[in-house]
Amino acid sequence: MLTVTRLKRTFNKEKTGFQNINFSVDTGEVIGILGTSGCGKSTLLRVLSGLDPYYEGKITTDNSDHKNIGMMFQEPRLLPWLSVKTNISFGLPKEERKTNRYQTYLDLVGLSGFENHFPKDLSGGMAQRTAIARALITNPDVLLLDEPFSALDAFTKMQLQDLLLSIWQKKKTTMILVTHDIDEALYLCDRIFILKGQPGEVFGEVHVEKTKPRTRGDAYLSKQKAHILNLLNVQQRAAGGEA
Amino acid sequence: MISETQKWKVIERAVANTSAPDLFKKGRTMVLGSILPFLLLILWELAARAGVLAPHLLPAPSLILEKIIHMQKDGSLYAHVSVTFTRVCIGFAIGTAAAVIIGAVVGYAKTAEQLFDPLLQAFRSIPSLAWVPLFILWMGIGEPSKITLIAVGVFFPVYLNIVAGIQGVDRKLIEVGKIYQLSPFQLTKRIILPAALPSFMTGMRSGLGLGWMFVVAAELMGASEGLGYLLVVGQNTYSPDTVIASILLFAVLGKVTDALLKWIEFRSLKWQDSMNNQA
């Protein structure tokens, strides 16, 4: 459904960014892109989303126009002058913005009753819920998520991970999730690409062969985590008693 | 999903934001703000009556009030005020419109900025009153030269604020628009202009202030009607009450129009997460 061949985008005389990225994503798959900071994972997402047009290589999609993508950022990026409902409808064509199509998605993310609030009155988690609804309302072929929960506290983060999972179970949206949180990747993704180096390259691919929903921190996931830490070469510091 | 306490908190906050401010609180602010002006007025009146202040230099407030009431009765008050007010309004409208159009283009398009901005900045450094002789030469001492002068005065603060507002729009919000493939026009209309609204309002308010300043200059340079003309008349006929009366009227008009803009600003910027909007 989405295939990337020899994708390359570098900055600072080829010292940062990423290069030689090849992978393909099937419909309904949840792909994780994991890596330490500075390995170009956010840049990869910006290239895939079309925000950064200066790349080399090829991105091919089933839909030849490669237009229908949804994107969620680290911050909610709501438009502060629009209410929750108009923020959700933002990406719709003009005629549909006036309808109550937002209602389904408002309910989906659990914000019923808050449609007329302004973003300034929302908590961080609620703002990010609104952003999820906004990204989903256009029925994107691929939903790109750029560390979407990294700014949230641990509990809200888990709630929103579960929300994302339940949305995936309902809609089977194809997702590409960039994250630096190994547990998050293991909890949500079917396949995880490990990015490493400067510029970053795919260093390893981890299949998570466990049906969702998974139990956080069960033995299989812990084993995978140790494996990933090993790949990232940080196991001495972080794995501690778990391995 | 979301916990009940959190829901309750958010609703509380929103309700507090939208409900009218406590009448008592509002009254208190008004009373506190009027203590000093009233004290000064009483002191001034007493000093004038006691003969400390010479009446041909600084007449008592009651005399000035009498003058205004007298002008109101013979109809000249309305005539002067409406002439001045109309001049400011037309000049303000022309200046703001020009600033919005040029400012939007310069703020959005890099080439337009490189093309226009140096010239406009050069014009800005000319003290606007220096234009007076030229405008009179070109357009005579009629309405056009006065309105042009006011428009020039209003133009610059509005223009500068719009350009700064547009250039200061968060790149992150613009990216949201780009994700949805908005055209440059849609991007301007749906993201850039609303995001630049706060600084546009600031520009309008300082522009209006300058508009009132320049109407005085315009009317001092030759007019047969208007509050500025009253100032000249007062000076030439040794009547400080006329001068102070028109100063007072300027103050009231300036304050009222600014309060109007401030109200519009408050209404249109309710979404802002600022000190003013706190519960």
Spell out the blueprint of helices and strands:
The complex is a heterodimer of chains A (243) and B (279).
Chain A: E1 2-11, E2 16-25, E3 30-35, H1 41-49, E4 56-61, E5 69-72, H2 84-88, H3 94-97, H4 102-108, H5 124-136, E6 142-146, H6 154-171, E7 174-179, H7 182-188, E8 191-196, E9 201-207, H8 219-232, H9 235-238
Parallel strand pairs in A: 3-7, 3-8, 5-6, 6-7
Antiparallel strand pairs in A: 1-2, 1-4, 8-9
Chain B: H1 4-18, H2 23-49, H3 61-73, H4 76-108, H5 110-124, H6 132-139, H7 143-167, H8 171-179, H9 184-220, H10 227-236, H11 240-268
Salient structural properties:
heterodimer; A: 243 residues; alpha/beta; Rossmann fold; 3 domains; six-stranded mixed beta sheet; three-stranded antiparallel beta sheet; 9 helices; 9 strands; 33% helix; disordered C terminus; B: 279 residues; MetI-like fold; 11 helices
Question: Can you walk through the features of this model?
Answer:
Chain A is α/β, with parallel strands linked by helices and 243 residues long. Chain A contains 9 helices and 9 strands. The longest helix of chain A has 18 residues, at 154-171. In chain A, helix 7 crosses helix 8. Chain A has helices spanning 41-49, 84-88, 94-97, 102-108, 124-136, 154-171, 182-188, 219-232, 235-238; strands at 2-11, 16-25, 30-35, 56-61, 69-72, 142-146, 174-179, 191-196, 201-207. Chain A folds into 3 domains: 1-24 and 39-66, no CATH class; 77-142 and 158-177, Rossmann fold (3-Layer(aba) Sandwich); 211-243, no CATH class. Chain B has one domain (77-277): MetI-like fold (Orthogonal Bundle). Chain B is 79% helix and 0% strand. Chain B contains 11 helices and no strands. In chain B, helix 4 runs antiparallel to helix 9 (184-220), helix 7 (143-167) packs antiparallel against helix 9 and helix 10 runs antiparallel to helix 11 (240-268). The model of chain B has no long low-confidence stretch (mean pLDDT 88). Chain A binds chain B through residues 49-51, 67, 69-71, 73, 75, 77, 79-82, 90-91, 110-111, 113-114, 117-123, 125-126, 129, 138, 159, 163, and chain B through 1-2, 6-7, 9-10, 13-14, 17, 172-173, 175-176, 178-181, 190-191, 194-195, 197, 270-273, 277.
